[in-house]
Design a protein that fits this description.
Low-confidence stretches: 95-101
Order of helices and strands: HHHH
Number of strands: 0
Strand content: under 5%
Radius of gyration: 16 Å
Structural class: mainly alpha
Shape: elongated
Largest sheet: none
Length: about 100
């Protein structure tokens, strides 16, 4: 069976093909951005999460192996994780500690 376009793009990303990463980004940018907004409702946070997601894919490209599920499902699941950690980091930084007297 021939690989799908997404599988081909992921294989090319593993080979350090930046254009393949850009193509993958352009295929899923709108879907992932809308989903990030659904999760958070802050455009800047949604953009940051999307940037983080694709930076992580590039940095960890040799370990990015979504062939066990669809690329789309992998990207959505990974974005959910990033949004979760961003929310935790924000709530941690908003917690002020009162110094003891």
């Amino acid at each position: 069976m021939l690989p799908t376009l997404d599988e081909h793009l992921v294989d090319q990303v593993r080979l350090k093909n930046r254009q393949a990463l850009e193509h993958l980004y352009s295929r899923y940018e709108k879907l992932l951005y809308r989903y990030a907004l659904h999760l958070n409702d802050h455009p800047a946070t949604a953009e940051a999460a999307l940037t983080d997601l694709f930076c992580r894919i590039w940095q960890q490209r040799l370990h990015f192996n979504p062939h066990s599920e669809t690329i789309r499902a992998t990207l959505i699941r990974s974005l959910e994780e990033i949004m979760h950690y961003m929310k935790e980091d924000k709530s941690d930084s908003n917690t002020s500690k009162i110094p003891s007297a």
